[in-house]
Amino acid sequence: FWLRSRSQGREIEPHDGLCTQCRITTLINHKDNTKKSDKTLQAIQRVGQAVNLAVGRFVKVGEAIANENWDLKEEINIACIEAKQAGETIAALTDISSLNHPESDGQITIFTDKTGVIKAARLLLSSVTKVLLLADRVVIKQIITSRNKVLATMERLEKVNSFQEFVQIFSQFGNEMVEFAHLTGDRQNDLKDEKKKAKMAAARAVLEKCTMMLLTASKTCLRHPNCESAHKNKEGVFDRMKVALDKVIEIVTDCKPSGETDISSVSIFTGIKEFKMNIEALRENLYFQSKENLSVTLEVILERTEDFTDSAYTSHEHRERILELSTQARLELQQLLSVWIQSQSNKTKSIAEELELTVLKISHSLNELKKELHRTATQLAADLLKSHADHVVLKALKLTGVEGNLEGLAEYACKLSEQKEQLVEVCRLLRHISGTEPLEITCVHAEETFQVTGQQIISAAETLTLHPSSKIAKENLDVFCEAWESQIGDMSTLLREINDVFEGRRGEKLSNNANPKSLKSDKPDAEEQAKIAKLGLKLGLLTSDANCEIKKWEDQENEIVRNGRNMSSMAYSLYLFTRGEGPLRTSQDLIHQLELKDDDKLMLLLEINKLIPFCHQLQTVTKTPLQNQVFLKVDKCITKTRSVMAILVQLLSLCYKLLKKLQLENNRWVSVTNKDSVDGKT
What we know:
Number of helices: 22
Radius of gyration: 32 Å
CATH class of the domain at 528-595 and 604-672: Mainly Alpha
Function: May modulate the Rho pathway signaling by providing a scaffold for the Lbc Rho guanine nucleotide exchange factor (ARHGEF1).
Strand order of the largest sheet: 1-2
Pfam family, one: Vinculin
Number of strands: 2
Mean pLDDT: 78
CATH superfamily of the domain at 528-595 and 604-672: Alpha-catenin/vinculin-like
Keywords: Cytoplasm, Cytoskeleton, Phosphoprotein
Distance between the termini: 63 Å
GO cellular component, one term: cytoplasm
Helix content: over 70%
CATH topology of the domain at 528-595 and 604-672: Four Helix Bundle (Hemerythrin (Met), subunit A)
Protein name: Alpha-catulin
């Protein structure tokens, strides 16, 4: 149980939830026929008491939150009472300290009423879930209330007319923004959806940077009340902050405005991924898709490549290659559709093989197109970042401003506008090839930042040029130029992350506001332990499924069976690792365990195409250095191994069916042929 009252800082330790879950599981799964030694009885009693204590701590926090939120008090208190009753029931059923004494013969315990523990555990789960959901509503209400306070203060700041009044209101605004930042930061950390987390990070980054902009822009307006460019500059800051505040509320309330399009719908890489999944599904089901759907889907993807071919910044060589690959993909789709139609009426082996070949060919062409698009976008971005690394135009704008040079302002404002258009265009191209939804969102954020900040730099430079001796106007221009330079730095990081994803190295994003929590130690925290334990349990179940399939085979020395048994054994050792058992003692042991030899891999996977990419990804994970992020590496290793095991289970089952079918056909052949003339091997 992990429940935190953000406003008061009260919290239940995260490990209480993991430990309590494990303890209840231990109680429910204990064997009835286990010898009830004193050590066993004492252990069971300690577990029951520990569960009750953890529930007690949970209930105290829930009751405290209920007392602060009268609209939800009754619902929270009822759920807390149920949780408390369940905890006490579990403690009573495990109170078996006197079980070995004669007078305790009639006592109801976990050994005599195991269903009682199960009922209590279910009640506990239900009541705790209710409290957590209600507490989540409290947190959302806190964020909305905090946002409304910030908006109200912003409205007062917009109308302020004196420095003294501005200083007082801005001090209040600063405190409210700090509170809002804390609430939204906690919420961002709690989000499980990576897409929402990226959106929240982008919105919070806007608010953080705009707070300083709002200060200097407002002061400039107060100093120069009749300057149109100063007012335009300030209004741009307020507008962007309001949009960011609304975006935060959309995320926490999960309310999407009507008409808003999903970013993933405009990503070429996402479209290619979905298209490949559709054509690969034809291997299993010839009627999975219509040919019209496939044709339309491919055309939509190729239309989006026009963002590259129509761009003035794309080189002639890249443009020609993209057009060539697009034409090739169209031709190969027509070939695929032709073979597909034949295979629906003529289900022969040769047609099936031809269909497989056409699927592989178009997949290869699309992969080549992806590579070309990636090369085009990343090369453009790298060249652009390199050419703007010295920020010559920004320096020139500052100089023309303090000199009051209006002609120079016009010249360099035009150059900055050209830079802005280049950066915006490249961000759009990077979005197409980013590879993940969070990175797509980061690209959109970068595009919007360059678009808005570019205009604001020009208006700030214009104000300084009109008032060249104004210190506050100079300070204001410096703030906006720093924001531009910061976004250029963020774009360099974004480019590295996109390359990491494309090459199979999932780069981790580092926060600009580094804190001790961002530098994780090798030891995973309680939340990470819970995630690993859950992954391990799923892996253990898959191992059991694999073993069941292996036992069906009469020939236990069959090559498939032997390799399958080895993989299952390796996966089981990973499962034991997540429980703190088995031969793997450290995270490094686990990683070394998964470093398969190429020969062994080829023996097992020669004809099994589905396993090849998973094994490749697994090898990439084991060999990719992730300093101070061992948990992340372990998490990825177990996730990839789960994928391999899931396919292995299907593979063993399919091979077993095929073997039985082959044996049946052989028996039929033998029954109608002279047995003496038939070689047993044949």
